[in-house]
Every structure is written in structure tokens, then in C-alpha cells.
# Entry
Amino acid sequence: MEPVELEYLASLAQRSRVIVELGSWKGRSTLALAQNTNGVVFAVDVWEDNPLGPMGTGMRGSIFAEFQENTRGLANIIPIVATTANAFEAMKIAGIRPDLIFIDACHEYEAVREDILNWRSLLTPFYLLTGEHVLCGHDFVGDYPGVAKAVTELVPEFRLVNSIWTTEGA
# Structure
């Protein structure tokens, strides 16, 4: 993630109280969000070092440990070890309504499409009325054509900040 993208996320976080980040990996973008909000960041990731892992089991360990080390001391980060679909269901049941959602998990078309359709339904009603909520994501530009395809189809009002697609200011 480029410095201009981290600065952009930080500026969004300053106006947000409930943030959901889908795909937190080692925590670089999580830091930009958490250090700049007075609210909370729900960091959702499976944190598997290798999706196949030994014997196809997946390995959760060194990447999650690196995430924890990189975000140490920030009490406003709540890591959620889950797929984005499972985290969505849990947050829907719990009634959690984010005002900022940052999508940077699986970059395949179907996964991005599902994340956009699911998660935008949870944006806070107040922000839906005022148009101040933000749905955004990473890697619109680059090696992930599935991201660009899903965003173009489902978020026609987006604009770009480097390779971040966003509804803010669109």
C-alpha cells in the first residue's frame, strides 16, 4: 500500500467511529485506520500463511503474530479471525453498523462481489441518509481484474485514490 493510500485511509478514519476492514493481513492499513479514529476497527482476516498449508489445513501463526506485533498497544482494534462471509453474518446478528468499510480481502471477482453486496447493507442508517458513509477497497488498479469488474458493476459512483476505489466524494 502506497503512502498516499495510507494517508487517505487515515483521513477517512478521522470521521469514522465504527470501521470494518476486510483483509487486514500484517496490519499496515489497520494501523492507519486505528491510529486516526476515536472509534473502533474490526479487523477481519483468516490470517493463513498459506491457504493450503500442510495437508490443506491452512496455517495460522506467523502472519497473525506479525499482525499482533504490528498493532500492539492499540486497544481500539478488534481482530476477527473469520472469512468475510462469516464475519458479515456475525456482525449482522450483533447489530453492528459500520460507517466505514474497507474491502481488501480475496481479490477474485465473486468474492469481491459478495463482499460489496453483503457489507454495504450494514452501513449505518444515519450515514445512508446523509450520504456520508464510505464503502471503499484496495487494488482496483493492478493485477486483480476481478476487483475492477465487481466495483464497476456494483459501485457505479466510485472514484479512485491511487488504487483505492471509494464512494467518498464520488
User: Anything to note?
Assistant: The longest strand covers residues 40-45. The chain has a mean pLDDT of 89. Residues 9 and 33 are 6 Å apart (CA to CA). Helices lie at 3-13, 28-34, 62-70, 84-94, 109-120, 125-130, 145-154.
